[in-house]
Amino acid sequence: MDWKLFGLTFGSVFLAEFGDKTQLATLAFSGQSGKPWVVFVASSFALIAATALGAAAGGIVSAWLSPIWMRRLSGVLFLAIGAWLLWPQGS
């Protein structure tokens, strides 16, 4: 196993997920239901499924794009989503 890659991935994803809306939703479900272990298992499976899709998509896309272009595309998409979230929505 590539422990350096494992540690880098774990640290990056952990910091990215820490305090985000997924964690807050998990906290809310756990508090409302009073069943923290059920919420823990369900949210863990959801994160595993989402991560599996991301890893599979990255593997497929890497056949056509070099790593530098994948990073650039990810950065542009990240900025675009951020701008979209900041854009005022009509109510």
Explain what this protein looks like in three dimensions.
It is a single chain. This protein is mostly helical and 91 residues long. The chain has a domain of 62 residues. Helix content is 81%, strand content 0%. It has four helices and no strands. Helix 2 runs antiparallel to helix 3. The relative contact order is 0.05.
Chain-wise SSE layout:
Elements: H1 3-17, H2 21-33, H3 36-61, H4 67-86
SSE series: HHHH
Sheet with the most strands? Answer: none
Question: How many individual helices?
Answer: 4
State the total count of DSSP E strands: 0
| End-to-end C-alpha gap | 51 Å
Q: Strand portion, in percent?
A: under 5%
Work out the helicity level: over 70%
List keywords for this structure.
91 residues, mainly alpha, 4 helices, 81% helix
Q: Quick gist of this model?
A:
The chain is mainly alpha-helical and 91 residues long. The protein is built from 4 helices and no strands. It has a domain at 3-64.
